[in-house]
Amino acid sequence: MDTTIIGHRTPRVDGEHKLTGKADYTVDWQADGMLHGYPVPASIAHGVLETLHLEQARAMPGVVDIFHHDHFPELYRSPSSAAHQDQVSEVRLPFEDERIYYDGQYVALVVAESFEQARAAAHAVRADYRQEPGAVASLLDTEQEGRLLESEGVCRGDPDTAFDQAPVKIDHTYHIAAESHMQMEMHATLAEWRDGRLIVHESSQGVVYQHKALARIFGLPDEQVEVVSHYIGSGFGNKLFMWPHAVATAAASQMLGRPVKTVLPRQQDMESGGNRPASRQRLRLAAERDGRLLSMRHDSTTETSFVHAYVDSLGSATPSLYACDNVTISQRLLEVHHGTPCPMRAPGETSGIHALETALDELANALEMDPLELRRRNYNRSDPAKDLPWSSKHLDTCYDNAARRFGWQHRDPTPCAMRDGDEFLGWGMATASWGAMRMSCAARVELRADGSVMAACGTQDIGTGTYTVVAQTVAELTGVALENIEVRLGESTLPAGPLSGGSMVTATTLPAVAAALRDAIDALKEAATGEGGAFEGSDPQRLEIQAGALVDQQGTRVGFAEILTTLKLGSVNGEGQAAPGDEKRQYSFRSFGAHFVEVRWDPGISRLRVSRVVSSIDIGRAINPAAARNQVEGSIVMGLGMALTEKLDYDPRDARLINNNYTDYIVPCHADMPDIDVELLDNPDYAFNEFGARGVGEIGLTGIAAAIGNAVYHATGKRIRDLPITLDKVMTL
Amino acid sequence: MDHSGPTREGGELALALTVNGEARRLTLPPNVTLLEVLRDRLGLTGTKKGCDHGQCGACTVRVDGQAMNACLRLAVMCEGQEVTTVEGLASEVGLHPVQRAFLEHDAYQCGFCTPGQMMSASALLEDERIGSDDAAVREAMSGNICRCGAYKNILEAIHTAREELASQRKEGGIS
């Protein structure tokens, strides 16, 4: 469709709120009589809590109460069902038993009049533990294999025989350290009970899910709960599903009859607020001498905690990415004694594609073939995993464009062969990919007598630009100016919208908003053609909406504000629903892209830097190209950290987290920035939805660490199969 | 400036400072940080807490013009000082050039680190010791983490704001 607002760059509609300090993040909310909660974390990772010494803390100024195993209400567990939208990050309730399953697990919640008082008292709580031997810090520190998850297995063809008989093959194992989301706004809850109704402000990527989970846990009817999250200081997956701090805070508020706010300190956020699990992956790839893949075997193990089985599905993209008849995927899960992992941006596939794309680079070396050429030779036109054609695949264009912009044709394939002064240059590439998902969604729209339009949906804007793309959709379909459009998100009492995850919000939400808008426009036409209306007696079918006015075939135009005012109507309303349909049986939906990376390695001073990234990504239509490009650039930055610096360090002796802060867990900063050149192709995928958008929040993170690692190999001749590629590894290997 | 320091009143301390041009008097315990005073006691929640350890820069404010981490500064150390927060960045004529440039360049995503980024940016643009090339600006901004990774757009926004401030100076606007 021809568009004037969708697909065009426009400043964010919530931008001024964010730039003036008016945006109301959860941590900014206060309530009358509000108390402050501060959790007390366990200081062992494996054992039993024997005694809590609370006398000193209780006697401290401002302390109102201290909740713990022997002083906490009986609650229900949430069924934690994705289908019923009551999924939680940890099914175990806070203080449920006296076992300690991981470092940082809450043993108490101190509630006091001020933040400083709560913090001081929490630090004064002493605990006696009976520590047990055998704490497993990470799957990187154990020989244990974990249990095989039959449901995650995939097999097509005869990969074992094909592998054994192939002329060229590689067999390598890759490790990735656990990562922390490090979202800027820490997990936070403000809970308040009003006449038996629970109102929670939470920094959440899923208000509807938290609403339902709280209702189950407190045994309340759904109508008695409300969850609000207007602005979120990002999440990257660890705010999808509720964590125990929210349950403890809501229970404390209920017992004390006053609002309670808990903001996790950064250290606790890192210990117990989610992480990307460490992984071990064995990749066995086999090919003909011409590069055609004969067999792909991808065997993965990820870790989880002892209180919640989180599975990071590492092999889910592998059967779809390349043409290969013989593929097998397996996944194991190993329980370890650190905080529960959860989805982190492009969960599963970020790790899985890293290993696959590194293994392909190794295979290209074994074949003495250009790594880009190897990928081209195994290009597929349909999804071999589903035996369905791709709805819209332009990866070949991504390869062509990014290679040209990067200058790939000038690459000398020999490692350590390209130099610039004291520095070795390394050039590497990898494919990026992320599945396109869409869920069912509801929305509401009001056309108001003051000329404004309100669109509402119970999804969230976590920084991806959802407020803006919803406003753009309304503007596109009505011709109303963006400044006259109000978008309401982040309230669980609004029509049910999707989690802000899986890169699915745009494709899920916009069709529902459009449906609600059309319903409202129909209501407007009906009113306008009825008694006393501006188009009384006309056929509503013959009216169109243009620039905020109804127009008939004679060209008579009347603004909707005037129509409503004349009829003494405050507004007309529309409700809309949208859901994926039959298209899933006709096509497979997935986005693709390519990253090309240059690193510079100065062996004299052991300095390794990423100097240049060129990416071409096909996400269908970008509703707002500025915000979409920002997502890919931000993903590249996050991938730089994953590749070179990010690692949650769990002490192998006692499984305690060592680097629980921004200084010891190193995320990329301004000074680390390479030149980043991102191209977004613009091929609307109308088979997926009427706006042609497939989502953009995650794909940029897939493949980038592999492209960096492949470039490091090219610069140094050293293949480092364990992330992050820290300098010690480059120097000692 | 009065160097006599804050006075003790019943275990709490008296503090007088200026915030965004407005004189403020408070009585508070000595362990309260400037960050908590701004957010909890003065309701200026634009300044954010990202780590409470001076590691992330989200709480950057300007104290007597200098960019500082409000979480690392006890409030009582600010006696007689002038504090500017993100709420004080815009003026009656509209958004500050840094704010306008951030809007134009989409120099944020979630927006949580943004007040701190802008306070650091506004300070570096007035600091003649800091060069205007990419490397100098990146180095000077490296105390402000943006986990969304909008660094490229932040850099472009700072360059644009510098040009606008320069042209304003030429026209005799902001000095």
Automatic annotation (TrEMBL), chain A:
Matching entries from SMART domains are given as: Ald_Xan_dh_C
This protein's species is Modicisalibacter ilicicola DSM 19980
User: Is the keyword Metal-binding in the record?
Assistant: no
PANTHER family per UniProt: ALDEHYDE OXIDASE 1-RELATED (PTHR11908:SF132), XANTHINE DEHYDROGENASE (PTHR11908)
Can you tell me which residues the record assigns to a coiled coil? none
Which GO molecular function terms does the record list?
iron ion binding; oxidoreductase activity
| Keyword annotations of the record | Molybdenum, Oxidoreductase
Protein name (database record):
Xanthine dehydrogenase YagR molybdenum-binding subunit
Q: Which InterPro entries match?
A: Ald_Oxase/Xan_DH_a/b, Ald_Oxase/Xan_DH_a/b_sf, Ald_Oxase/xanthine_DH-like, AldOxase/xan_DH_MoCoBD1, AldOxase/xan_DH_MoCoBD2, AldOxase/xan_DH_Mopterin-bd_sf
Which Pfam families is this protein grouped with? Ald_Xan_dh_C (PF01315), MoCoBD_1 (PF02738), MoCoBD_2 (PF20256)
Ranges for the Aldehyde oxidase/xanthine dehydrogenase a/b hammerhead domain? Answer: 20-133
What family, per the record?
A: Belongs to the xanthine dehydrogenase family.
TrEMBL record, chain B:
| InterPro entries registered for this protein in UniProt | 2Fe-2S-bd (IPR002888), 2Fe-2S-bd_dom_sf (IPR036884), 2Fe-2S_ferredoxin-like_sf (IPR036010), 2Fe-2S_ferredoxin-type (IPR001041), 2Fe2S_fd_BS (IPR006058), Aldehyde_Oxdr_Iron-Sulfur (IPR052914), Beta-grasp_dom_sf (IPR012675)
Sorted keywords for this record are: 2Fe-2S, Iron, Iron-sulfur, Metal-binding, Oxidoreductase
Q: Identify the CDD domains for this entry.
A: fer2
The segment(s) forming the 2Fe-2S ferredoxin-type domain are 13-89
> Which top-level group of life is the source organism from?
Bacteria
Span-the-membrane segments of this chain are none
Give a single Pfam family match. Answer: Fer2_2
Q: Where does the signal peptide begin and end?
A: none
A single MF term (Gene Ontology): metal ion binding
The protein here is known as Xanthine dehydrogenase YagT iron-sulfur-binding subunit
